[in-house]
Design a protein that fits this description.
Blueprint lengths: L2 H14 L8 H17 L19 H5 L32 H10 L50 E9 L32 E11 L4 E14 L6 E4 L3 E11 L3 E11 L11 E11 L8 E4 L4 E3 L1
Antiparallel strand pairs: 1-2, 2-3, 3-4, 3-5, 5-6, 6-7, 7-8, 7-9
């Protein structure tokens, strides 16, 4: 028997003995119609047309993109950062990173030609990333300089050696001998009034501006000397180290306002009126208020003492 006929006979026998029924011609016709419809409903993707200039052959996109005859568009290498603008008539502000600002503030030229005013309203926005520069004189030439033992209300970059002398101490223990934050208290000695001798204090001061808004003042009292008792001799020792952060609130040509908070560290000895901790907040100003006048300078220190 023909093998093909034999195979069909076996398949028909299986179908009639309880297996699956053979697919009819109608089923095959529907299957072919569905496949044909799907194929006709999804045409091949369109090819991108080649764009070429008049009279020129089409080129691949990669060659067009690197064509040296096409001027490239300028692209910024870094994002543009916020840079505060200076008021009209003043040089542009120069903004730097933290380390660069500190380095230029301490070792830079600090030229007055680079000075720009600062306002209280811009305290948190301007000056922190700008190097310190010297401030110009007031309109009538009043200098902006440090006066030993007085308030200045200014930002300065300087180092100095100061000396204070008090003649014939009286019996008022606990009073400050002068207005500066590192001043010794009157020693707690006993005896008749007027027999306490004199008091001597020598200190090294340095003002280190870190930017246009913040500077550190460091005071090292290398000697404080008083009588040990009214009838005894003089003794001298190291005083109380003082570190003062100072904040420039306002900086104008004729007015300046500075807030500070001196931190006194008890590194001295109580026998000379030292060895106590204190925080001394301070608000000082410098004001060249009228022509032909020097400036007024004043401060309002308040000591919070822990004895």
């Amino acid at each position: 028997m023909n093998p093909r006929i034999a195979g069909r006979a076996r398949w028909a026998e299986k179908a009639t003995s309880g297996g699956r029924s053979a697919p009819s011609l109608r089923t095959w016709a529907w299957a072919i119609a569905i496949v044909w419809g799907c194929w006709r409903g999804n045409p091949a993707p369109a090819q991108a047309p080649a764009v070429a200039a008049s009279g020129a052959a089409a080129r691949p996109f990669s060659e067009v993109a690197i064509d040296p005859s096409v001027a490239p568009t300028a692209i910024s290498e870094a994002p543009v950062e916020f840079a505060p603008t200076a008021p009209a008539g003043y040089p542009a502000r120069v903004v730097m990173g933290p380390l660069g600002t500190i380095r230029e503030s301490i070792f830079g030229p600090a030229s007055k030609e680079d000075w720009t005013p600062l306002t209280l309203g811009s305290f948190f926005r301007e000056g922190w990333d700008e190097a310190y520069v010297n401030a110009p004189e007031g309109d009538n030439g009043a200098p902006k300089q440090d006066w030993t033992g007085t308030a200045n209300g200014l930002f300065l970059r300087l180092a100095s050696v100061d000396f204070f002398y008090t003649n014939h101490l009286t019996k008022n223990p606990g009073l400050f001998l002068n207005v500066v934050a590192f001043s010794p208290l009157k020693p707690k000695t006993t005896g008749a009034p007027g027999n306490y001798g004199n008091q001597y204090t020598g200190a090294f001061n340095i003002l280190l501006p870190l930017n246009q808004r913040l500077e550190l003042a460091v005071t090292v009292p290398f000697i404080t000397s008083v009588k040990s008792t009214p009838t005894g001799g003089y003794i001298g020792n190291f005083g109380d180290l003082t570190i003062t952060p100072r904040f420039r609130l306002i900086e104008q040509k004729n007015f300046s306002l500075v807030a500070a908070a001196a931190v006194r560290i008890p590194t001295g000895r109580g026998s000379e009126g030292n060895a106590y901790a204190a925080i001394v907040p301070d608000l000082s100003f410098w004001w060249n208020f009228a022509p032909k006048w020097e400036a007024i300078r004043e401060a309002t220190p308040l000591s919070v003492v822990d004895t």
